[in-house]
Structures are given as structure tokens and as C-alpha cells.
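Schema walkthrough. Field components (list of strings):
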Amino acid sequence: MSAHERGLANGLKEERARRALTQDALAALVGVSRKTINTIETGRFVPSTLLALRLAEALGRRVEEIFWLT
Amino acid sequence: MMEIAPNLTTETRMRRARSNVLFVYAVLFAIWQAADLLGGIFSPAHFLRSLAAVAGLLWSASLVRILWLQRTIAKDKAVESAVQDELVQHHRSRSFVWGYWTMLATLGLALLAIGSGVHLSLDIAVRIPLVLGVTVPLLVFAIQERE
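Field assembly_structure (string):
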């Protein structure tokens, strides 16, 4: 697979579940809407670096533990 | 450092209200402009003129509603942040791209028609792309927000 064909995958849902957070609660922690969290988890929306870092911080993980290239 | 948004239901409510009002705004704008345009072509045009007047009035009311909604959203910074988050910015950018291409395509068609000798008034050739350029992005945005 060439570099430009690689997409972004994430383990946001699993990490969120591990911390027993609802989508609403995580959304509130990072200042976005629940829908944004949902679309990131389902891979329909790729977050910015800033939001990815905020999500990682809110979940107490490093960003590369939540987001990675396919 | 990070604060929990005080009212999550408000955010969802505001977001839905905004997509609803934008949808209504776009539809009313299209009806108003279409009726006004057709009223200038067909005669007698009493019905079309009345329709344009009513739609124009309702459109003005929806504009006030949008401004009021924006003011309400801006009062709460946490709600504003959630309602204007980057997914919304993404939807907004995509909507503008839709509007741009729609306007470009209709302008191209109008120029093609004029170039082919079709009698097309300047009013129609310019107004239709402009109306679509306003309506399409709003509808696309509202639909994306509803999905």
C-alpha cells in the first residue's frame, strides 16, 4: 500500500469504553459535540491534530495509542 | 484545565434548531426568488407575486430567528465551542464547495445557452446561479448536520 493510500484508524471507542465515558461526557471534556465524537469513532471524520491531542489528553493516553495509520 | 460543558442537551438542541432554521431559510429564499423570477416572466402573475411577498416576509422572519439563535449560542462559551466545533467547520467547508460548483455549473450552462443563441435575459442568467449559490450550501449544510 502506498503512502497516500494509508488512512487513519483509531481506538477511540475502546479507550472511551475502558474509562467508562459516554460519548457525551468525552465530547464535553474536549469541547466538541457528541456527534463529532461519534463520527470520529466510526471513521467518517478525521480530527485535526489539535483535537486528536485533546482527545488523547482527556483519555490519559498518547495520541499514537489512539490514532494510527492503517 | 478542561471544563465539562454545563449543559449537553442545550448543545444538541441548538445544533438541531440551527439546522432546522437554515433548512427553512434556504427553502423560503428559493421560493421567494423563484416566485419573483417567474412572476416577471408569466402573466397574469398575481399568485406568483403574492407567493413571493409571503415567502419574502417569512424569509425575513427566519433571518431574524437565525440571528437570535446565534446570539443565544454565543452567550454560553461551552455550548458555542461544541456547536461550532471542527466537524461543523468541515460541514461548512463542504457546503461552500457544493455552492461554488453549483454556481459555476449554472453560470456555465447560462453562458453556453447564450452562446448558442438562446434568448436569456441577464436577470435570469445571473439570478439563477446566485440563488442556487445561496440555497445549495445552506441545504447541504443543514442535511449534513441532520445526518
